[in-house]
Amino acid sequence: MNIRNYIGNSKTNTAIISSARTVPDQFFLFNNGISCLCNHLEIHGDRIEVRGLQVINGAQTVKALIRAGAHRPDEPHPWMSDTPRVLVRITEIPGGYGSSGKIREQITQFNNTPNTIKDSDFRSNDPVQQHLKDQFSKIWRRGRQVAYLPKRTDTAPKNAEIIRLEEFAKSVYAFLGDPISFSGATAFLFNDDVGGGYNLIFGDGENKWDKMPESEFRLRAAAYWLAQEVGSYMRLDRSKEPDLDNRAALEKKWMLIYAVRRVCEHYFGSDWKQEIQKLYKGDWVFGEGAKGDLLLKIYRDAKAGVTTAYKTAKRYEPGFVHRNWMRSKNTPGQITEMLHTTVLVNREPIGAIPA
User: Fold this and answer.
1) 210 and 128 in contact (C-beta within 8 Å)?
2) Looking at the predicted structure, is the pLDDT value of residue 116 above 80?
């Protein structure tokens, strides 16, 4: 239940190893100690007995001590004269971790200060994250197995298609929600309180799932692959774009991903989710084959919606500022309006996405 694995030779960890080796008798004074949770704790004289022991802060210290004590058989043990002592605090959580999740999470959060903690780290142990690892592992994309890694320090399998938690969350929220709410800080995406983004990305909008339903998984996996392809195409288009306003409008792919969803709603109506779910394997590329050609058309319509909305706002809004437009809560509405009133009004139906 430690929210991260060992993060390697950081400045902090190098200092832990050095002090454990050079001044083991003073290690107790220099180290912050290790914090643990357990399901049950009993005291027996000068010993304690615990069940369900979990390190929640101090994984860096534990692994650093292992490294500090390592030595070759022909070398003297570094701790022949003095052994480092370390403070260990164990907190018993009655009822187990599942029924006491909130207090466990708070204890974990407030104990983790030595190395930088990201908001996504606190979600990396959620059941839905572990289930997503299993769901994605069943997909092979372009000859490579897909690996979803909710922890920043998870080891990536060799030759795998890697999906990171934060990029996945941004892609899904931009597609299903909006591209603005997380523009200031990604903390919004991992807030599971009412009004936060987490329960939309990894839940039904009100509550987070322990296991993501298969249809919802396919929708979100498709949104992620769309975001990856949109990002690649957008960067290429932007590099070749002679119009400065169009180039400015294509600064962030999140705007385009949001617009792609609106275009899909226009073409597929109430069936748009079922159509998008067909893309969940990511076994397609814009402009290649019947599926790729159709998706490229959707992308180009989305791009036209974003650039038209940008130019219109720049022309008619008093005191228009590029940075403000990119963060304004009014921007998604402007993009939607331009799609419906200007870009898509005379478009012919495109039919269903090929299987």
Assistant:
1) yes
2) no
Q: Is the confidence at residue 234, as pLDDT, over 70? A: yes
Model confidence band, residue 131 (pLDDT cutoffs 50, 70, 90): very high
How do strand 161-164 and strand 140-141 relate by DSSP bridges?
Answer: unpaired
Distances (CA, A) of 217 to 64, 165, 190, 265: 38, 14, 18, 19
* 92 DSSP β-pair partners: 38
Distance (Å) of CA 93 to CA 44, 90, 112:
19, 10, 18
Q: What is the pLDDT of residues 239-259, one digit of tens each?
A: 999 999 999 999 999 999 999
Q: How confident is the model at residue 4 (pLDDT cuts 50, 70, 90)?
A: low
Task: Report domain extents, the chain.
Answer: 11-117, 128-343
d(CA 316, CA 178): 23
Q: Any residues with CB less than 8 A from the CB of 269 and at least 6 apart, and which? A: none
- Residue 146's SS3 state is strand
